[in-house]
Write a structure and sequence with these properties.
One of its GO terms (molecular function) is DNA binding. Helix content is 40%, strand content 19%. The protein is of the alpha/beta class.
Length: 332
């Protein structure tokens, strides 16, 4: 009977869906592999369907199994939401909000965390850098509460909070001609030795699209999937890069370099918060959105792209680069 199904069995199933390996799923549940296997077979017997395809190793789920996995994730998420609501009734909101952020938006997350913890001092935050498609999938699977990602024009509603439009600068050596001149066009950028994010990342596709629209193509010598690795290469002084304005929030302007405005019309993609809709930890996610909105974080992050007080004056070759965290808040 379905009424005999235990939450522990659903935990086994969701762990198996996540780990895709019986042994690792058992470890994640702090159970032996035999205990997990027995629990899953009992679940199949109680529901009257085959859930997992088995061989020498886990081979995936049947169509019925995929359905059960979805319901199991939802049921466990609702259980967690119930616990959080009851905890809040006792002592105020105390929970961990799970955020998935596109890598280029991670430098902006600290502004969100500051607003969140100011509103709810007992809360905790877990941040993962993820591709936009993975954020959408994990929101749907209730593995995340909130996503920080690029927003399509048709993505609106109560579950969406636009934050800022990403703008771009060229970070280049102070001795480069474009740095001394204090401006650069998209068409001039390929003349420099460049490092950039990998082609599979949406930010890279946006930058490549802007270069293509200007009749140019990037001559990228170094590709990486992390902003940290990109900045490590920039620090050598050998390469330049197109950066999002919010990156300056975390990294500022490196010594010996200049952040040069890119002239002409260019992309201004919208970045914002999205929720997973009704379901898991929905109260926590909604509270997070409300805290960020009340704190005016959008105005902070979307301050004009020319507002970089930490950017040395390109005309002053003796200027020492400074870092002002208030000037680095604009993209992702």
């Amino acid at each position: 009977m379905v009424s005999d199904v235990a939450l522990r069995q659903l935990e086994y199933l969701v762990a198996l869906a996540r780990e895709k390996h019986f042994g690792r799923a058992a470890q994640a549940c702090f159970a032996s592999q035999s205990t997990l296997s027995v629990g899953l077979r009992n679940l199949e017997r109680q529901l009257g369907v085959t859930i997992a395809r088995r061989g020498h190793r886990f081979q995936g789920f049947t169509a019925e199994g995929e359905c059960v996995v979805g319901w199991a994730a939802r049921i466990l998420a609702e259980r967690d939401a119930l616990r959080i609501d009851l905890l809040r009734m006792k002592s105020g909101l105390s929970a961990t909000v799970r955020i998935g952020a596109i890598p280029t938006a991670v430098p902006a997350v600290s502004a969100l965390t500051t607003a969140w913890t100011a509103a709810h001092p007992e809360v905790r935050t877990r941040i993962e850098a993820l591709p936009s498609r993975e954020i959408d999938r994990r929101l749907a699977d209730f593995d995340l509460d909130v996503g920080l990602t690029y927003l399509d024009a048709d993505r609106t509603g109560d579950d969406v909070l636009p934050l800022y439009r990403e703008s771009y600068l060229l970070l280049t050596g102070a001795d480069e001609a474009v740095a001394r001149r204090g401006r650069v066009s998209w068409s001039e950028i390929p003349e420099l030795r460049l490092c950039a994010l990998t082609r599979g990342m949406q930010n890279r596709r946006i930058v490549d699209g802007a270069l293509s629209a200007a009749g140019a193509a990037a001559r990228v010598e170094v590709e990486t999937d992390t902003i940290g690795a990109l900045y490590a290469h920039l620090a050598t002084g050998q390469w330049s890069a197109v950066i999002a304005h919010t990156w300056m929030r975390a990294f500022g302007v490196l010594a010996g370099m200049r952040a040069v405005p890119i002239t002409g019309s260019g992309p201004r993609p919208l970045v914002g918060l999205v929720l997973g809709g009704s379901g898991p930890a929905s109260y926590v996610a909604r509270a997070y959105l409300e805290a960020v909105e009340r704190a005016g974080v959008a105005a902070e992050l979307d301050a004009g792209e020319a507002d970089h007080e930490g950017m040395p004056d390109p005309a002053d070759t003796n200027a020492q680069p400074t870092v002002d965290s208030s000037d680095a808040e604009k993209t992702a």
